[in-house]
From TrEMBL:
Identification of the protein by name: Phage tail sheath subtilisin-like domain-containing protein
Native organism: Tumebacillus amylolyticus
Top-rank taxon: Bacteria
PANTHER family, per database record: PHAGE TAIL SHEATH PROTEIN, PTHR35861
Amino acid sequence: MSNQQYIVPRVGVSEMPPELNTSAGVSLGVIGIVGTFSKGPINTPITCYNVYDVKRQFGDDAMNLTGFKSARGAFNQDPRPEKIVIVRVASAAAKTASLDLLDGQSTPKASINVSALTKGTDGNNVSVKITAGSTPGTFDLVVSYKRLPQETFTGLDLDTLGIPSSYVTLTKAAGANDIPAPLDDTPLSGGDDGATTADADYIGSVDTNGVRTGLKVLETVNVNVVLCAQQTSNAINQALIQHCEQMNVQRGLRVAVLNAKKAATPSQTIAAQTYNSGRAIMAYPWVYPVEDTTKTVAPDGYYAGVLAALAAHISPSSQKVQGIAALERVIPMDADDADLIALTMARISPFAQDIMSSEIVISNGLTTFSYADPATQNDWSQTCYRRIFDKVEMDVAARTKWAKSQPITEKGMFQPLRDQIDMILRDYKDKGEIFDFRPTICDKSNNTAETIQARRVITGISIRPAAAADYIDHNISRFSA
């Protein structure tokens, strides 16, 4: 740049709308799971990125626990979900495994209490060994997990118990004066998962201090697909639907995956399907996981994993489901199968077996919401319709935050909003995520003197979603040269 440009001062004026915030992209790939586990904090949202992460933070599978089964089913999908936010729940019976270390006096008494970090039976796998320290009045501690040494802490005494352990905490016993006596490797005991839960533990609540439990914890977290692991009760299903319907753009718009009853026939499942919400999907039947083909598990995690890994505008119909060895009830994916037709008409989304490939697939991508009313054309029956509208709504909201507190004028507000929203929708159309859109309306026709006085700005956004194909008709004919 020439120095001559700075000889004569000048003022350059450029008429531009306020700088538009850009979005890093809206994801619908996060699953929220409420379930029981053998360890981990209770009623606290914890993010996991793979099944090994779930094991590390919440423990492995167990017969009477629910959360791992659903999380594993989700992470079995390829591609797998972006991440899962887990909320561990437990009954009041949940207890922390512990061990009192005794001193070496002639009449031994408690010196130090060793406790697992969290409540649950996984704490019973932790053991500790005590040896004399290298300095008088100190001791060394070895922490093992399933009898394999994991951590060693040296030179401890009654005043230095704040160790950075991944397994235990140490607390000085009341009235203790002496360090613990040497002790062979000894397990902690008394841990309880609190696995015998009630519906209320999953549904949760918010107390007068704002402390949340169960599903209520996920109200504070941005997730896109939610489920209560392995649960089938009407009360929990209704709570899941209400949870999703009450969410807003800031908290994350979402859909719920509901489970049909275990061992239910198609006719029993159809009779029980009384829900009517565009934000709920009824999955059926229960399945045999490849990890243990002797027991069935609910399909919620598998369905949620497929859904979270899909682009929002793609229907889950005909998508392959990974990690399933067999279905509790085999439903052929055949146009002549009466059960499949009946389940579809009842707005239930079953797993079926593709006759040609023997793969397990989702037979339709329906929500529990009723089909279109010709009078209103209010049709959210396709899950992909619901999700693409959610994505667009969250994307538009994120990228138009600049408009808040800007002057409500044609050039300062209305035109920039119209231009930006149309640009966003044009990008969705060009990528094939929506079929078409109408120009955004944001002017004096829908922003009256009254709404402007109330400091409200209204935009009219109209989108035509990309329809999911229900039928492919191949017309094959012979021709002669």
